[in-house]
Design goal:
This protein is α/β, with parallel strands linked by helices. Helix content is 39%, strand content 15%. The longest helix has 17 residues, at 170-186.
Amino acid sequence: MEFIFDEMPSKIQNRGYFTGTPNWGESKYWIYKDLKVHFRVTGEESNTPIVLIHGFGASCDHWRNNAEIFASAGYRIYGIDLIGFGNSGQNLQAKQIHLNNQFWGNQLASFLDEIVNIKKNGKVILIGNSLGALTAITTLLQRPDLIKTIIAAPLPEPVTVNPIKVLFPNWIIRIKNFLIKIFFNLLPLKPLINLISKTELITFALQSAYVRSISNDNLLKRIVTVPARRPNASKALRSMCIGMSTRADYAKGPSILEEIKNLPNRPPILLIWGNQDKLIPIFLAKKLIKLHPWLKLSVIDNAGHCLHDELPNHFNQIVLKWLENLKTYKKPI
């Protein structure tokens, strides 16, 4: 059978904008490559595991209106801070680490192996927002044996949609990467981060990811600004700018989806998109599923890029319905 979702009503009575708390669950730490990784966990240990993966600039705290709802529905919930974000390690230049989705995919796979007990509780459900969704599909390509399903809300990097096929000589690629490293090493990221995180510019920046006004959402601003004010935040951002800009084409979203398409035991993947997403417009999602009809798409009205936080009740209903249908899912022959 295939999963088909009708769009739910756009007017939800209890939107739950400010009902959540960034301090959900129990806060814990784990060490990956000598770097501290922060995560949260809630729900019964024996329940099916869900791992929540945040987007750019956020942390596991951004799942403030989702984690406990999923736990109360009978799941064991983990929220991880990717390296460079939240309360996880940020001092990366000393270790010569360049952050990108391959690095985070390896981090997530190790987290599933070492912290989430896959052997005991079964394959994991991954739910990612934007960069977190890219990390989730990267992990799937690396370790398909660990993953039951992925919910990408939304999936970034569909701008090209088709896999990148332009081939450049290695010497051109080396020069390009060298210039990128010089540019980002010279860019004054620390004062830029301070300017944004300590002024009203943070409200302007966050508003681009939301439809409803976030002017009075002080919890949201705290989730984003507290990690940005840590001493090594600029080092982490520099590492990510270089790492994401110098990736090989095979590490980018369109190429990853082409590889996933051919996996012998490919798990079902659901895309959830806000129809007013300004950062990754809905027309790109429709183009993406036309190219990859094995992907499923659910659209939320009056929602932007951070739809899990903007309309949490609506988002949570779609996720729980998908997971309920997954129990009777049979892969098409």
